[in-house]
Amino acid sequence: MEETIRGKVLKVALKELNQRGPDFHMDDLARHLHISKRTLYEHFSSKQEIVKEAIISVMDDLYAHHVRLINDKKMSIEDKLLAYFHARSELIELISLRQYEAILRKMPDIGPDLEVQSKRDWDLLLHFLQDVEKTKGYKNFYALALLHMLMGAGNSILNHLDELDDERYLTYPEYMDECMRIVLYGIKK
What is the reported pLDDT for 81? Predict the structure, then answer.
């Protein structure tokens, strides 16, 4: 029974995070769930724990999607690389980059836990790139260098959101797709 309530709380918390960012109120969350605020605190110690667990639930879902993608025998290597950053959580639409940045700014204590979760996906991609490195049909490349380039691009968009031109606003998946296309196909016409 507890897991059902916890799961519902996390799902509704994700919706609140998408709409209001980290400034959502626990009263609103309880009202949307038709439970008391006290019931929320019987299952979670704090709003910060709810936010962390909600984001981790999405990250777990994305990781499972990445594992399925990498193991898909029908897809080409290029298709897998291009699809990797377009993964979507079946739990809920991903939190926007601006909301994610606001969450980390307001709740910096959850950052290290989210980093651990994120590292799993980067490690999975590294192992895939190392396997690609060994296959024929690709130039010799250093998988770790490519991974660091992609990680740098991912961190860059998070650190420079306010500098992005609003006329050409790209979501994280679109931005990473652009980066991957440049890596795979270059910039020459």
Answer: 92
